[in-house]
Design a protein that fits this description.
This protein has about 500 residues and is mainly alpha-helical. It has 3 domains: about 70 residues, no CATH class; about 210 residues, MFS general substrate transporter like domains (Growth Hormone, Chain: A); about 210 residues, Growth Hormone, Chain: A (Up-down Bundle). It is built from 16 helices and 7 strands. The strands form 3 sheets. It has a 3-stranded antiparallel sheet with strand order 1-2-3, with no helix packed on it. Strand 4 and strand 5 form a beta hairpin. Helix 3 packs across helix 8 and helix 8 crosses helix 14.
């Protein structure tokens, strides 16, 4: 037994303790009762530095008892059902809607590109808006339920419109389809930010990288579900026209089921109250989301605001580089290699599988070495992959599969940790707003980078693709290295003397 434990056990009885036999008996009895009391009476109600729960002393028999803070995987899985359903939908949208626009309504590549870009444009406004509204409401569930219900109804309406396409009046039919599609995109935008913010609401700050890893993994499985259904649920009639009704119904059914389980199992108010009671797993001194009052308004301290802007800059630069490569890689491969489309699809699949396999391990590693360090490792890894591809991708080689596996690991390293770094700076009442900040930057980058890289490729040729991605990924290293807040591991004291600096 440690001396500190013994002292804490006998301290209240100090006046009674002496060299006498009676005094020693009292001391021993106190110790025995303390050993029993620490398991029976003491309860955790605070979280200290390093991700460790400390038990408060409600009576004289309680010792300090420490245990590592652990992610509630069951709860996180259930919360992740919302993101699971979202990713299932978007996989269907990105894979099927372009085919409908081409085969059913006869739109050319230019017009299809405009329509398919509308979702990103809407997201720039909708995701921050509904994230902030869910903060103001103080609840995420109403947005998730209403958004899902509208999306399911509109998804089935689209299936009906497509199935009963009126070739005699194509303009009117296309207009009805387009209006319904816009309403569907708004309904999906209504609850994406609240759905993602819900995980942050019910998870301690030091564990949000692990939590984000779980919901990203679930999102990948949601996309996988849709890919499987695209193979088994799409039928073709005698005239060669595809019937997507069963696919749409299967995705809509999945969305209803996932959200129903979420609503029935997650008690949002109770869990949020529990997190607030422990200040989301950090002490007041370590809380990076603390604001200061300036001219009657609450604002982030300038150093924290600077870090937030640096983190968001990192996110933007990452998406400018990474999404450029993933968006134009199939075009690069088909123009450069024989059998390019098949090889390109396999490379992208390898990257996806590597990312999925890395999510959970990266979340755990990040808890050990810190989010910022893990992001830097991811950026350097992606840069190495793009550098190798610059010189080795002019001809297809099996080694490119290794390169893209490395890139998939890098993607997971960055994705798992950037979101939690933004959340770390937020407080319980504005997580949705900060989620909107993330999506505003990431969606802007994803909207802009196809245009930018298109200009570079037109001017310099296809070989400029990987150098383009390499430059932006390397640039992303600068702001994340300068950010001093948002990590799950507080910075070590700059000097030995600083380690002893405590408040009076």
């Amino acid at each position: 037994m440690r001396t500190t434990q013994l002292c804490r056990a006998i301290w209240p009885l100090k006046p009674c303790v002496s060299l006498s036999t009676d005094g020693m008996i009292v001391a021993y009895i106190s110790v025995i009762l303390g050993i029993l009391g620490k398991y029976i009476i003491c309860v955790p109600n605070a979280v200290e530095r390093g991700g460790v729960y400390r038990y408060n002393h409600y009576n004289i028999f309680c010792f300090y008892k420490e245990r590592p803070m652990k992610l509630n995987y069951k709860r996180t899985f259930l919360v992740g059902l919302a993101f699971f359903s979202i990713c299932a939908f978007w996989q269907m949208y990105d894979g099927i809607i372009p085919l409908i626009l081409r085969d059913t309504y006869g739109l050319d590549n230019k017009l299809r590109g405009i329509v398919m870009g509308i979702d990103n444009m809407l997201a720039l406004f909708l995701l921050p808006l509904f994230g902030a509204l869910s903060d103001k409401k103080g609840r995420r569930m109403p947005f998730i339920v209403i958004g899902t219900a509208l999306a399911v109804v509109l998804t089935m309406l689209l299936a009906y419109i497509i199935r009963h396409y009126n070739a005699a009046a194509p303009t009117e039919s296309l207009m009805i389809f387009f209006v319904s599609l816009m309403a569907l995109l708004v309904s999906m935008g209504l609850y994406r930010s609240p759905a993602v913010a819900l995980m942050a609401d019910v998870t301690p700050k030091p564990l949000r990288s692990q939590g984000n890893a779980v919901i990203n993994l679930m999102g990948a499985f949601g996309g996988l579900y849709t890919l499987i259904m695209m193979k088994v649920a799409v039928t073709t009639d005698a005239a060669g026209n595809a019937n997507y009704t069963a696919l749409f119904a299967s995705v809509a059914g999945l969305m209803v089921t996932a959200i129903a389980i979420l609503v029935l199992t997650i008690r949002e108010k109770k869990l949020v109250a529990e997190m607030k009671a422990i200040n989301y797993g950090v002490s007041e001194d370590e809380d990076q989301g603390k604001t200061e009052t300036v001219n009657g308004k609450e604002k982030l301290p300038k150093p924290v605001l600077k870090s937030l802007l640096l983190i968001l800059t990192t996110i933007g630069l990452w998406f400018l580089g990474y999404n450029a490569v993933t968006t134009f890689f199939t075009s690069y491969a088909t123009a450069t290699w024989s059998g390019g489309l098949s090889h390109a699809s396999t490379c992208l699949m390898v990257a996806t599988v590597a990312a999925v396999a890395s999510y959970i391990p990266i979340g755990m590693i990040s808890a050990k070495i810190g989010r910022r360090n893990m992001i830097r490792i991811g950026l350097l890894t992606a840069a190495a992959g793009f550098a190798v591809a610059t010189f080795c991708a002019r001809e297809f080689s099996f080694y490119l599969y290794i390169v893209f596996a490395v890139v998939g690991f890098a993607q997971a390293s960055v994705t798992v940790n950037t979101f939690p770094m933004v959340w770390e700076i937020s407080r319980s009442g504005n997580v949705g707003k900060y989620t909107g900040f993330y999506y505003t930057v990431s969606m802007t980058a994803q909207t802009v980078t196809p245009f930018l890289v298109g200009i570079f490729l037109d001017k310099l040729g296809n070989d400029a693709l990987f150098p383009y991605g390499l430059v932006f990924v390397l640039l992303a290293l600068i702001p994340i290295s300068l950010a001093k807040h948002g990590d799950n591991r507080p910075e070590a004291p700059k000097s030995k003397l600083e380690a002893f600096d405590v408040d009076d």
